[in-house]
Structures are given as structure tokens and as C-alpha cells.
Design goal:
heterodimer; A: 273 residues; mainly alpha; 2 domains; 10 helices; B: mainly alpha; Helix Hairpins; 0% strand; elongated
């Protein structure tokens, strides 16, 4: 048992519980303060584990901590924000920080795809549906358009939800980080990022070659991904395309208004004619 | 990439997943519940890509592509259903549909 990690997790659980929307004024400020304390404790713990492992240059770059804090904060923003439109905007922030994390993991293509698909396509769909559904929710009551809907202002079972998920998170973190990081240091295995993925395709990189001085024959990350996708997973890729087509047809069929089969098809004239 | 760095990325993925669970269980707005599942997808994607780098195997990134595909299909279908349900009752409250059980 690692009590520092456990305390940080429990503090985060209390913070998230306080920040969830509720009937009386939610204690957002107190919850935010506790959340910042919990996050700072977690970061200190992470930095300390790197130091305890004894290896120099083993830890992630400082950008990792920055992007991680942005991601966690905006995820809490999505969950705790009563107004769906602002929650969607927080999700855009989450996506951008996630793209930063992907770049740190040398997956530039996935970072761009994440921004285009999540930040672009999926989020636009969400915002459209939110706009469509919330314009009628205010019901014409004066002043109601500035407030979130009743069901958005009160979370259902916040205590049970926080308990379930943070017990899971606590167990996962306890398993991930064995006590004092010493056992991690023993099983230390360092991977050269510039030789990444070359092993799986049987391409050897000579020692001392950095990405900048890499010969042109060395496949890039995107080439590796393309080889994997269209070689190993070609059938799955085709099936994914079929799935998308089916989902497209299904969405159109589900969402269209009920029109009778005998409805007049259109006369080819403008309504004014 | 060292093992300890891998653990940091896994921890970030787990935290995002936990926050997504809180959102899915506690929000009563249909759209917000689906948005919370997208947070969980992000956590899983970070896990997959971190393992992809650590094991030097591009399959992790390929899986993330498929996860994104499923997420897009799920979002389009779920939002279509939300629009249909909203037309029936003029509300997004999940509790309104509590009689819809097996």
C-alpha cells in the first residue's frame, strides 16, 4: 500500500464529488482547491517515482506534465459543467491536449487524426445536437435560457458514481506503482525511441543514428502505420469502412422525421411559384 | 522510453477513464452521458499508443484508428437516437425513459 498515492486519489474523489452539479450551490471553489491539491500531490508523486528509480533522463518530458494537467482539468470540466455547450468546448480542449500527448508518444499522424475527427467531425455533431435539443428546453420561460435545464443542474447518485470509479482508479494506480519505485528501477528497460517500431518490420537501425540524421531509407512513423494498416489489418480496415457505411445509413434512417410513403415527392417548383 | 515513463502515461489514461465513468454514471443528460464515454475512449487511446511506442509495434496505433472509427459510428448512431427520443418527449432527461427496461 502506498499511502501518498492513496491520499491523492481520495482527495481527488472528494474534489470531484464537490464539483458535480447539485440542487444547492455546488462547492466548486472548495472542490477546485481540493482538486488542485490532489493533482499537485499526484504530480509530486510521479516526479518522485522518477527520481527514486535512479535512472537519469528516464522521466517524461516536462510537456507531459503540462498536457496531463490540461487533460485532467478539462475532463473534470466536461463532467462538472452543467451547460452542455460549455462541456463540449471543454471536450475540445481535452482533445487538443490529447493530441499533444500523442505527439510526445511519437504518433504525429494519430495526433492530427484526433484533432480532425474528434475536434472537428464528432464535436461538431455533438454541438449540433446540443443546439437542436436545448433551444426548446427553455420552454419560453423568461430568463430560462441563461440557466441549464433542471436535469443538468442535479447529478443523479454522485456519491455512488464517484465511489465506484475512484475505487477502480485507486486499485489501478496501486498496481501500476509498486512501493517506492525501487522495484521499477530493477526492471528498468529503456527503449530507443528513434528505433521505434523498426523491430516489428525487421528494419535495423545502426547505433548513433538520431531522427535528424536518419537516412532516407528509414521508414517514418506514418509509413510504418500504413504498412501495418494495409498489410496486417487490411481486412479489418475494409470492415471498418463497411461499418461506417452501415452507421451512416442507420443514422439517417433513425433521425429522419416520419414521412409517409405516399407523400408527394416534389414538383420541381420553388415554393413561391 | 523507459518503463517508468510508460507507467505515467498509463496512469493518465486510467485517470481519464475514471473521470469518464463518473460522468457517465452521474449525469442525467443523454448527450452528456455520451460525451463522457468519449472521455473514456481518450483514456484507452492513450494507453494503446503508449504501449505501441513501448513495445515498438505499430499495431497499437492501428487499433487506435479502429477505436476512432467505432467512436465515430457510435456518435452518429447515438446522436440520431437522441434526436429521435428528444422529438418524442421534448426532454433529454434519462429518467424520463426509465420505463424502457427489459
Amino acid at each position: 500500500m502506498d499511502f501518498a498515492l492513496l491520499a491523492a486519489t481520495a482527495l481527488g474523489a472528494v474534489a470531484l464529488y464537490l464539483m458535480l452539479p447539485r440542487e444547492k450551490a455546488p462547492l466548486v471553489k472548495l472542490g477546485g482547491l481540493l482538486g488542485v491539491m490532489s493533482l499537485a500531490g499526484l504530480l509530486l508523486y510521479l516526479v518522485r517515482t522518477v527520481a527514486a528509480s535512479g535512472a537519469t533522463g528516464a522521466g517524461p518530458s516536462p510537456y507531459f506534465y503540462a498536457f496531463a494537467v490540461i487533460m485532467i482539468a478539462s475532463a473534470v470540466g466536461v463532467v462538472a459543467q452543467p451547460k452542455p455547450v460549455y462541456a463540449a468546448l471543454y471536450f475540445v480542449l481535452l482533445t487538443l491536449a490529447g493530441a499533444g500527448i500523442f505527439v510526445l508518444l511519437l504518433a504525429e499522424f494519430m495526433a492530427v487524426v484526433l484533432i480532425i475527427i474528434y475536434g472537428g467531425a464528432i464535436l461538431v455533431t455533438y454541438v449540433f445536437v446540443i443546439m437542436l435539443a436545448s433551444q426548446a428546453s427553455s420552454g419560453g420561460v423568461p430568463g430560462a435560457e441563461n440557466k441549464a435545464a433542471v436535469y443538468d443542474r442535479r447529478a443523479s447518485e454522485p456519491f455512488v458514481a464517484v465511489l465506484v470509479s475512484f475505487v477502480l482508479l485507486g486499485v489501478v494506480l496501486q498496481v501500476l506503482y509498486p512501493v517506492d519505485g525501487a522495484s521499477i528501477a530493477k526492471s528498468q528497460a529503456t527503449v530507443r525511441p528513434d528505433s521505434w517500431m523498426s523491430a516489428s518490420l525487421g528494419v535495423a537501425i545502426p547505433e548513433g543514428v538520431t531522427p535528424a540524421t536518419m537516412p532516407a531509407t528509414q521508414p517514418t512513423n506514418i509509413q510504418m502505420l500504413g504498412t501495418s494498416l494495409y498489410g496486417q489489418y487490411a481486412l479489418s480496415l475494409e470492415l471498418a469502412g463497411v461499418l461506417l457505411t452501415i452507421a451512416l445509413i442507420g443514422a439517417v434512417v433513425i433521425a429522419r422525421k416520419n414521412v409517409s410513403v405516399d407523400a408527394p415527392v416534389g414538383t420541381g417548383k420553388l415554393p413561391s411559384e | 522510453m523507459s518503463q517508468i515513463e510508460l507507467y505515467h502515461y498509463l496512469a493518465l489514461g486510467a485517470i481519464l477513464f475514471a473521470i469518464g465513468i463518473v460522468g457517465f454514471l452521474s449525469r442525467r443528460n443523454l448527450i452528456m452521458m455520451f460525451l463522457s464515454t468519449e472521455i473514456m475512449f481518450q483514456g484507452v487511446a492513450i494507453n494503446l499508443i503508449a504501449f505501441s511506442l513501448f513495445h515498438m509495434n505499430p499495431s497499437g496505433q492501428s487499433f487506435v484508428i479502429f477505436v476512432l472509427t467505432i467512436a465515430a459510428a457510435e456518435a452518429s448512431l447515438a446522436l440520431g437516437l437522441v434526436v429521435m427520443l428528444f422529438r418524442r418527449r421534448e426532454t433529454l432527461n434519462v429518467d424520463e425513459w426509465s420505463e424502457m427496461q427489459g
